[in-house]
Specification:
There is one protein chain. The chain is mostly helical. The protein has 8 helices and 2 strands; from the N terminus they run αααααββααα. α2 packs across α3 and α5 packs across α7. The longest helix has 21 residues. The radius of gyration is 34 Å and the shape is elongated. It starts with 26 loop residues before the first helix and ends in a 6-residue tail after the last helix. The relative contact order is 0.12. The mean pLDDT is 82.
Length: 208
């Protein structure tokens, strides 16, 4: 009688082949996968700047980064739009630049806006305006608050550039530089908070 084969450990060798047992993937694993996928999409949306390498946390877009980082390289037009879209301008002149009939004059196609030299329009933004004004053949009350203590020279230059170069509004005037705004600010420093009247502005040379 022959002996049965044994393993090296002395145990009796098995005559059956090993086999894998197939099991269904637990449903909770699918749920977890899709939750992680959704979280990743939300995180990307809020923190990636849409894959723009110039945008970084905590900023969510190039526009937001441009506004809060004055040293960031940007065009005056882009920065000006950011300033305009704040309640500073958009509340009165509206998103389309058409203003409010009888109250706030339009910036679209305005002769005041499109003067080659921006001396008068800079004064309006700095010290405000008081008195009736004619714009495109329509009369407006001309009441505008001063922004000289709210906006700095760079912001005023940028928002005026945005308005003056907004071709969708039919405007096409040269860019306004911060140095130009500073020069006008220094000239009218002794004026204090007194707003300008349209008649007074018309007597001032745009180049002044």
């Amino acid at each position: 009688m022959s002996a049965e084969p044994t393993s090296s450990t002395g145990a009796r060798a098995s005559s059956t082949e090993p086999s894998a047992i197939r099991q269904a993937i637990p449903p909770w694993l699918f749920v977890m996968f899709f939750l992680l996928l959704y979280w990743g999409m939300v995180y990307f949306d809020e923190h990636s700047g849409w894959a723009n390498p110039q945008v970084y946390v905590p900023y969510h877009s190039l526009e937001e980064l441009s506004f809060y980082q004055p040293s960031f390289e940007r065009s005056a037009f882009q920065f000006g739009k950011t300033v305009y879209d704040k309640p500073t301008c958009i509340a009165c002149h509206q998103a389309d630049g058409k203003g409010v009939p009888g109250q706030n004059p339009p910036l679209v196609g305005s002769d005041w806006v499109n003067e080659v030299e921006p001396g008068r329009i800079i004064r309006i933004v700095l010290n405000g305006l008081s008195g009736p004004i004619q714009v495109k053949g329509q009369s407006f009350n001309g009441s505008m608050v001063p922004w000289k203590d709210v906006l700095n020279d760079e912001e005023i230059a940028a928002v005026l550039t945005y308005v003056r170069q907004n071709k969708e509004w039919g405007n096409n005037a040269p860019e306004v530089k911060p140095e130009r705004v500073k020069a006008v600010r220094d000239k009218i420093k002794e004026r204090g908070a007194t707003p300008f009247s349209p008649g007074e502005l018309q007597k001032i040379a745009p180049t002044d």
